[in-house]
Prior knowledge:
By secondary structure, the protein is α+β, with helices and mostly antiparallel strands. Helix content is 36%, strand content 21%. A hairpin with a 4-residue loop joins strand 5 (153-158) and strand 6 (163-169).
Amino acid sequence: MTTRTETHEFKTEVKQLLNLIINSLYSNKEIFLRELISNASDAIDKLRFKAQTEEGILGNDTEFSIRIELDKIKNTLTVTDNGIGMTYDEVLENIGTIAKSGTGAFLEAMAQLNKDNTLTPELIGQFGVGFYSSFIVAEKVTLLTRAAGADKAVRWESQGDGKFTITEAEKDSRGTIITLELKKKEEGEPDFTDEWTIRDIIKQHSDFVAYPILMDVEKDEPIPDKEQLKDKDGKPIGETTRKVLKTETLNSMKAIWSRNKKDIDDKEYEEFYRHISHDWQPPLEKLHLKLEGTTEYSALLYIPSQAPFDLFSPAFKHGVQLYCKRIFIMDDCKELMPEYLRFVKGVVDAPDLNLNISREILQQDRLVRNIRHNLAKKILDLLKNMDPEKYEKFWEEFGAVLKIGVHTDSDNKDKIADLLRYKTTKSDGKWQSLKDYVAGMQPDQKEIYYITGENLSALIHSPLLEQLKSKDYEVLLMTDPVDEWVTQTLTEYDGKPLKSAEKGDLDLEKVDEDKKGQYETLFKHIRTQLQDTIKEVRPSTRLTDSVACLSGNTYDMSGYMEKILKASGQKTPENKRVLELNMAHPVMEKIHAMFEKDKNDAQLNDYIHLLVDLAVIGEGGKVDDPSRFSKLVGNLMAEA
Ligand code: ADP
């Protein structure tokens, strides 16, 4: 049988990334070890999770550990684990590509890189480049791995120069061995073959890893009396101690969440966050809880300071790990955190959990449901009590996700409503809460006004808001597609109804009944001319300066909603809009006069279409027939 050996090129983006990592992280070289240990620990976690349903997969190899070996002579460092290992295809897929990123997202982020091409820690965290950090210190990396349950192993080798080889190989047992052939140490740099250097790094970065990190270290051992060389008086003439190798555990393995808050410093909290999140930026906020009573659990949760680029991808992994009495049960435990808090990362340890629980029944488990309920409340309280500046930062990153809760979590709807922030016609680009909005309402104002649309500056200048602005009423500017759903559910706040500035009658000014009578036949005529697109032509209650705008009836779909649905490829029901005309505008007088003179005037018909075009442009939309529009405006200018 021939063995499969292949040489591959790294994907282009990996090459770029490798260069960046090597050039940017030279002052933080030691982090490579934390990354490798983290991967080893994850690999053991994965295996244990699998072993819950696949009996026998562990075989006799049930003592989990991560082993470090140093060789001063060969100048190598080796990290070995007996975790889940990888198959040939998994190695190809995981190592040599950027694990969690789409090429597009990565390249986009690359484009944002500082000009000097340094890789910021945020970026590294986002792309999970853990393994590649080996090349900061190694000139060659060899990975030998055997997947649990497989009999063949795989060897992956690379000098970080753009190529790697992958070949079938032999290995006695399951798991992964990563050997780094270290670069020559330069003056003043740490020596990664030195026991104490390694001890220090592990104490600092990996102390709480849940599996023992073992290393054989030299110890002095007394030489037994009868083995010692002695002179004729019985005095020892040679060494009285000798060096022996002893295996030592370098980490305390203490589950940080089960420790007392007052004994944990910020640095430890941050290290643990890095370990579980693979995010290199410190978290924005943390929550460490111990609950006793009927629902007993402890939790250590974090809110990241930056949204991961794949937060909205369907494959996004939730960041909560489930433990039972410090034993890892599962990663990515969606059942513990509502969808709208999916950015929360951390650990939940529930000692009363049924250990044989499967993912499917987890959701129905009462204890799990109670924990989720409880945690959601705690996180919402944490957000509420956050320092305002910090909260704003949070909102910028995660507001769009949190908002979903208004629609999906009826129990906490009010709490979430308090956490909403919007820019408004009066807030000067700043975020404002609904509470502040209500406090600033005009004495005669009964409703909370909002408008939805894609573009903030188009919204702020929308003709639909002219009357509202003339009354000095503030309007919430909603530019997030999710807001369309928020406003469907959140119909009032603090007893004040939410009202779309685009839909239904605004009831702000009395319509001039005389004029309405005069214009009635003209409006009917316009409606007939536009019957394919417009369902009603009406005197406007919204406009003061502009001549025309498009609106809808109270229960109509908003223009933005229609756009969103269309963009997502969904069939939308026919949604004809209402054309509102400003009877006080001089243009209407002109048009009225033309109509009185000759309702079949070709120019009148052009003007009618222009009215719609003006309304469309006023809301930042695109006119149906741009060439007709420009021709008509051109003619008008020539006449003027
Ligand atoms: P990340 O750990 O952030 O996903 P890495 O580049 O460090 O990124 O690793 C890529 C993938 O390779 C991991 O997600 C994992 O699937 C796999 N991997 C890395 N190290 C190991 C290991 N020691 N055992 C098993 N799989 C591993």
